Amino acid sequence: MYVLGIETSCDETGVAIVKNGRDVINNYFATQVPIHAQFGGVVPEIASRQHLIHITYLVRKVLEESNAIPDAVAVTQGPGLMGSLLVGVNFAKAYAWANKIPIIPIHHIEGHIFSAMLLEKSPEFPFLALVVSGGHTMLIECKAPHEYKIIGNTRDDAVGECFDKVARLLGLPYPGGPSIQKTAEKGNPHAIKFPLGLSSGENLEFSYSGLKTSVLYKIKDTPQSEKTEQWLADISASFQWCAIEVLINKTKLALKKTGLKKLVIGGGVSANALLRKRAVEELDAEIFLPPLKYCLDNGAMIASAGYSRLFHGYQSDFSFTANPSLPLC
Ligand code: KG4
Ligand code: ZN
Fold first, then answer.
1. β 2-7/262-266 pair status
2. How does DSSP classify residue 290?
3. What burial class does residue 202 get, using C-beta atoms within 10 Å of its C-beta: 0-12 exposed, 13-18 middle, 19+ buried?
4. What CA–CA distance (Å, rounded) separates 208 from 263?
5. Confidence of residue 201 (pLDDT cuts 50, 70, 90)
6. Which member of 58, 163, 248, 300 lies 3.0 to 4.6 Å from 177 by CB, making a disulfide possible if both were Cys?
7. pLDDT over 90 at 14, yes or no
8. Nearest-angstrom CA–CA distance, 312 and 21
């Protein structure tokens, strides 16, 4: 069965066709990074207009090159930016209606979880998922297909959002995650001690606003003459270390509390090299890390989740609409 996956929740137009939820036949996306970088972050109105420009071309390209006829369409229903989501949802509805095939609305976070199903060796349920992106920092107990329990969440900023905001404070380009990672390469991760949000005790909640504020104060307190290239590398490396340290510690605790032995890591921040390395080295679990192209927002993960929902008997009519604050469960 071929599923066409469409993802337009934020600033990437992602379109893919996936066979049986696992084999990616084609996966293309149009990035808007250079456009939003001029403003230091995503401008919602520009994002939705860009989706409109790219979506028809991308769907046509995916279909023509794959020579496959979709049996169903899966689309991100939410959460995300309303205008952006509406472009994908309405395009998907029109395509499904015209071709008389089923449509499956998908939660964006479920998509990130299902990016692990695109791995050659994919995880069997139950497993723990750490989903870390620009909008989410979540620990999710994945009990069975489409049966989730959120056991950890952020009280304020998401970790990716924190990377983006700190990069902006440091004068590094958007998106912040990759620029901080690059700048940190030559830095000492233990040069500056930053606070680890909500690190004491047994709770699985995250908080990233304190870390961001500490970086701000450090920048303000450092005389201009000391702000050398090495200082920038050190502050980036120290920030990155702390941001990732919290993820590692909380995931360790979640594995212990749930007794789960398999861990899926997904979302844009799962592209981070330090997180990937430390997770494999330090966590007592079988780790499922999607390749970089499926960590960031993409259509293939949405198609995979859509296939699974169809396989498990989920159906939808055309009455659903985009929902920027759609709950996962
Ligand atoms: O999942 P995603 O593509 O979009 C959302 O659903 O938000 O994640 C984007 C986030 C951005 O905050 C970006 O800075 C972060 O992922 N990111 C990274 C890295 N690559 C992307 N964060 C840390 N290290 C990276 N290498
Ligand atoms: Zn995402």
1. unpaired
2. -
3. exposed
4. 22
5. confident
6. 163
7. yes
8. 12
- Where do the domains of the chain lie? 2-119+294-311, 127-289
Residue pointed to by tokens 């109105």: 45
User: Is the preceding omega at residue 175 within 30 degrees of 0, hence cis?
Assistant: yes
Give the ligand 1 atom nearest the CA of 297.
3
User: ∠176-177-181 over CA atoms, to 5°?
Assistant: 110
Q: Using CB atoms within 10 A of its CB, is residue 307 exposed (0-12), middle (13-18) or buried (19+)?
A: buried
β-sheet bridge partners, residue 152: 139
Q: Which fold has domain 2-119+294-311?
A: Nucleotidyltransferase; domain 5 (3.30.420)
Q: Which ligand is nearest to the CA of 111?
A: 2
Query: Best of 11, 33, 211, 269 to mutate for ligand 1, by most ligand atoms within 8 A of CB?
Result: 269
Beta bridge partners of 147: 144
**Burial 266-297, CB ≥16 within 10 A → b, else e:** bbbbbbbebbbebbeeebebebbbbeeebbbb
Class of domain 127-289: alpha beta
Q: Do 2-119+294-311 and 127-289 come out as alike in CATH topology? A: yes
Q: What is the pLDDT of residue 243?
A: 98
Band of the pLDDT at 199, cuts 50, 70, 90?
Answer: confident
